[in-house]
Amino acid sequence: MTERKNHLDPRATALLVACCAFWGLQQILIKTTVTEVPPMWQASIRMAGAVALLWLWCRVRGVRLFERDGTLPGGLLVGALFAAEFVCIYVGLQHTSASRLTVFLYTAPFVVALLLPRFVPAERLRGVQWLGLAIAFAGVVAAFSESLGHHDPRQLLGDALALTGGLLWGLTTLAIRTTRLATASAEKTLFYQIAVTALVSPMMSLAFGETRGFSYSGYAWFSIGLQTVIGAFASYLGWMWLLRHYPATRISSFTFLTPLFALVAGVVLLGEPVTLQLVLALSGVALGILLVNRRSGTPTPPATPT
């Protein structure tokens, strides 16, 4: 069985920061492409491309995706949760602002921290780590506080979908850690998720009446290419590898960096102003992550999946 570490080392930290940085940039890419390529159709192209890349990767590396190893039930569950999360996000954006959706979506680490220790005791957070989680979330709320006050009563559906998306994200992590997928390769775990989503997304695009096609500008294809190669393939594969080797409660706290990286990308790429709120939010999230990943004096035994 692959050794599971009970703390984050520099390699894991660097990979997490890189993933969150790109996911923050990816929000800008989606936002600037959605006027040309409808959201669910955009997701369909991304996921289909990621499935093809992952299949080629596995062929080259000799990773077997279709052997009978008992992961099918857990894999289908994870795939369904992952696909449903994407639908909630894309549909939710039609009813609420991106800032409100972001805050509700990033309740996912709390779902992981609350539920996962019931199945994997070694994932339990201590008091100071819960404080760190709360501080990091408060930082995200602070970053978007200005725009949160300006909302339409009709946004209730979008907010509910965003909160549901956060719940589904947390449950996806829980399912990966507590089913046979905990011992599966990162490639196979990712395959279940993107393959199911690649099947669901076109049907949702059709149901929403989106205009579908392939005649888009060079920028649109560049954006979709980055979202596919780095976003849906490389970064998600890295995330699956991290979930297999490191504590899920610890790595989940790093996802609070993603919305702040999106704001930073807006400053750098779109010329949006740097505000005191952004600086305070970055400081709060950094402090929160440090507290969550603070190592105790007594080593925690490696987690054994149930």
From TrEMBL:
Belongs to the EamA transporter family. Its main location: membrane. Gene3D superfamilies: 1.10.3730.20. Signal peptide: none annotated. PANTHER family: EAMA DOMAIN-CONTAINING PROTEIN (PTHR32322:SF2), INNER MEMBRANE TRANSPORTER (PTHR32322). InterPro entries: AA-Vitamin_Transporters, EamA_dom, EmrE-like. The chain crosses the membrane at residues 12-29, 41-58, 70-92, 98-116, 128-148, 160-178, 190-208, 220-239, 251-270, 276-292. Residues 15-142, 157-293 form the EamA domain. The keyword Cell membrane does not apply. It comes from Variovorax ginsengisoli. It is found in: Membrane. It is a multi-pass membrane protein. This is Drug/metabolite transporter (DMT)-like permease. Keywords: Membrane, Transmembrane, Transmembrane helix.
